[in-house]
Amino acid sequence: MGRECTEPELFVLGTGQNDNIGDVVLRREYFDRLRAVGRLQVYMGAASSDFLDGLHLHEADVVHSSFRQWYAAGWSALLRGRSAWFVDKPGELSLDQQTFSRQVKLLPLIIGIRLRRGQVLRLGLAMRAAESKYLTSLRGLFRLSTLVRWRDTSTTSAFHLGAVEPDWAFGWNKTGPDALDLDRTDIVVTYRGDRDLPSDAILDELRALARDGARRIVVVTQVRRDARRSDDLASRLDAELVPWPPERSLADHEDALRAIYRRSALVVSDRLHALIVGMTEGAVPLCITDRGEPKVARHLDAVGFYGSTVMVNESSTPLGEVVGRQITRRAESLAATRNALDRLDDLTAQLKTRASARRAGGLVH
Questions:
Q1: How far apart are CA 177 and CA 186, in angstroms?
Q2: CA of 95: how far to CAs of 87, 88, 100, in Å?
Q3: Spatial separation of the C-alpha atoms in residues 112 and 190, rounded to whole Å
Q4: What confidence score (pLDDT) does residue 23 get?
Q5: Do residues 33 and 106 touch, judged by C-beta distance below 8 A?
Q6: Alpha-carbon torsion (18, 257, 128, 350), positive or negative
Q7: Sign of the dihedral through C-alpha 196, 201, 202, 207
Q8: Do 268 and 308 contact (CB within 8 A), yes or no?
Q9: In sequence order, which residues have a C-beta less than 8 Å from that of residue 362 and are 6 or more positions away?
């Protein structure tokens, strides 16, 4: 009864991509930390049972597949005099009509929560691109938040509010003190399937890494829709392929990938969360592209790991040297990852403080 009466109900937007390991990892960590503050009422939309299983939801969590029911539950809590918080969805923020319409639809509930001295949290978001007519309008709506933390280094300056904190996936950090000393020979490669195949220059250099037998290239699929791209890469690189079989659950595939990352020296990818999950297992991240890929750099700069991205057409250093140098940065990568975990712990402590202040009758903005 004590938890019911004194701790807030957190109305969380939690929808994600059903075939994406990264979406599960960051949401699972996010939900775990939010539970330290209050009971979760999570809108998950049409999430698959496989996706929900990967989140490790608790029996006390209330999961809504209907937005209308989730929204009504928020108003019901307010009308019953309960302490209620709104928690926005972490991840990529599209500055478009759909996002603007959704934020306007949420506005009455957010105002109601603010009037009842509840918290409005936007934690772990990052804009996709700043060139949008919706930026100014969304900036005004986001000013109703009580706490804003962006997961990259550029969204803060565009919105003119909030601060930078690491992506929530860094919180799932299981690297031990021996991670630096482990002998790692594998190089993991995984690329998005919705972009062009990496150029021959990139593939030739990656292939050369394994030519003398000192390194082994392993191609993995971290997002199920990238399966065909992984097949192509494994064939072009003459590399071992770790596919995502249809019968393998998301949770089991995550375990399989983590085991591979734990024995890998380097993860080469343009998938942000392939790099982050690799970092939490002790591998060094490297994004190699033929064109600009600012997303990865903005997010890893946010945790103090600079120089994560190389565009081959703009690099004066031979790609082989770039890869060789990156492999030697494991201590630097581990330090950034552990620093990210500490910062997420500090942010979680701030949330607990806000909940405690509300129970004591204080007002925290």
A1: 20
A2: 18, 15, 7
A3: 45
A4: 97
A5: no
A6: positive
A7: positive
A8: no
A9: none
Q: How far apart are CA 188 and CA 211, in angstroms?
A: 15
Give the number of other Cβ atoms within 10 Å of residue 307's Cβ: 14
pLDDT by position in tens, the chain (length 365): 444 457 899 999 999 999 999 999 999 999 999 999 999 999 999 999 999 999 999 999 999 999 999 999 999 999 999 999 999 999 999 999 999 999 999 999 999 999 999 999 999 999 987 677 899 999 999 999 999 999 999 999 999 999 999 999 999 876 766 666 678 989 999 999 999 999 998 999 899 888 777 789 999 999 999 999 999 999 999 999 999 999 999 999 999 999 999 999 999 999 999 999 999 999 999 999 987 778 999 999 999 999 999 988 766 778 888 888 999 999 999 999 999 999 999 999 999 999 987 665 554 45
Burial class (CB in 10 A: 0-12, 13-18, 19+), 321: exposed
Chain position carrying tokens 């926005």: 88
Tokens of 210: 């394994």
- Answering whether pTM is above 0.85, one says yes
The gap from C-alpha 236 to its chain's centroid, in whole angstroms, comes to: 29
First to last CA, the chain: 27
Encode 1-21 in three state secondary structure.
Answer: CHHHHHCCEEEEECCCCCCEH
Distance between CA 93 and CA 129 in Å, rounded?
Answer: 9
- DSSP, res 171: G
Q: At what angle do helices 21-34 and 272-280 cross, to 10 degrees?
A: 60
Query: Which residues lie across from 186 on neighbouring strands?
Result: 216, 264
Q: Which regions of the chain does DSSP assign to beta strands (E)?
A: 9-13, 39-43, 62-64, 84-87, 91-93, 120-127, 147-150, 163-164, 186-190, 216-220, 240-242, 264-269, 284-289, 309-311
The Cα 130–Cα 128 span in angstroms is 7
- pLDDT of 1: 40
